[in-house]
Q: What sequence folds into this?
């Protein structure tokens, strides 16, 4: 039986602090909202535009199974969405063959130095998923940089400023040694190198064993880059996607300062547990409230809809202080 929504919103508080609070209007966007025929809408990048409008760049899966991106804009970030009448960014396999099977899971970073938004997304081709980059000022026209991390790689976001003179990209290459989070650097956003692992998937029975990846772009705080990451648990009935927390040094984002042991958010509501892919919560974006503390986290639910949860950065950091520990790199494994 499905629990009533009011119970679900507070269910976690009985046992552990409710760090991410689901919006009572969830799911906030479904295919019913779309002005054209689609299969599903999920995994959206998010940003606040200059005028305070919330923009979601949503992953849309069409009824062939291929994905493109479509923008939805709202004054309050919750409802009243103005959705582009047509796809905003379509795969362009003629000029970018790495996009032949679609483009997915965008993350948006506003880059003050460029006065542009950097959109990193998964480009899906015969070689597998890779990381592509496009810059935009207005989410109407895009300057494509093409594939910047070759397959198999995904779950990527650009940091908003240079680190020691270089742009920094967090991403998740698959290697024979596992699916861990890495960072790479570039002088010009086109040529990438100095690849280094920054956070490893754990092993065995852990919730984040074997496969992890960055969820939304890191949140810059005075204490460091606050990173929400997803962990994938393989179970006999399928994969279980949950979220964990880690903190990285501001000037040396390769250095993990704290990592929580338990997950802080997982599929519980009906729309998260049942969909095209069951038991998935998958945030790709957040917006910050004017108070500089509350964040609105937009997440794909069961690969079928977009939902919203609210969190306090202060509370997330307090939780990490109480429940996190210093990460010791098991360098022999990567
Ligand atoms: C991941 C990504 C996400 C998706 C999730 C669950 O590997 O591809 O786009 O939401 O799987 O299907």
A:
């Amino acid at each position: 039986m499905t629990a009533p929504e009011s119970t679900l919103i507070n269910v976690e508080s009985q046992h552990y602090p409710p760090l991410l609070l689901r919006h009572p209007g969830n799911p906030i966007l479904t295919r019913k909202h779309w002005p054209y025929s689609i299969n599903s809408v999920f995994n959206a990048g998010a940003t606040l535009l200059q005028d305070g409008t919330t923009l979601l760049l949503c992953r849309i899966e069409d009824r062939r199974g291929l994905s493109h991106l479509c923008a939805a804009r709202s004054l309050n970030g919750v409802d009243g969405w103005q959705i582009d009448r047509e796809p905003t960014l379509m795969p362009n396999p003629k000029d970018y063959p790495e996009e032949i099977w679609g483009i997915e899971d965008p993350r948006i970073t506003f880059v003050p130095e460029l006065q542009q938004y950097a959109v990193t997304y998964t480009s899906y081709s015969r070689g597998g998923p890779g990381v592509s980059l496009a810059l935009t000022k207005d989410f109407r026209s895009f300057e494509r940089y093409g594939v910047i991390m070759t397959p198999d790689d995904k779950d990527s976001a650009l940091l908003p400023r240079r680190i020691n003179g270089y742009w920094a990209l967090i991403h998740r290459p698959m290697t024979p040694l596992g699916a861990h989070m890495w960072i790479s650097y570039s002088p010009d956003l086109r040529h990438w190198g100095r690849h280094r692992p920054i956070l490893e998937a754990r092993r065995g029975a852990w919730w984040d064993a074997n496969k992890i990846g960055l969820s939304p772009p890191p949140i810059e705080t005075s204490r460091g880059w606050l990173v929400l990451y997803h962990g994938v648990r393989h179970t006999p009935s399928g994969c279980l996607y949950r979220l964990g927390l880690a903190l990285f040094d501001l000037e040396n984002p390769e250095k993990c300062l704290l990592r929580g042991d338990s997950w802080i958010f997982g599929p519980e509501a009906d729309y998260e547990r049942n969909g095209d892919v069951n038991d998935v919560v998958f945030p790709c974006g957040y917006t910050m409230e004017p108070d500089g503390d509350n964040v609105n986290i937009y997440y794909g639910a069961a690969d079928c809809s977009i939902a919203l949860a609210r969190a306090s950065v202060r509370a997330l950091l307090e939780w990490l202080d109480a429940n996190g520990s210093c990460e010791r790199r098991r360098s022999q494994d990567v």
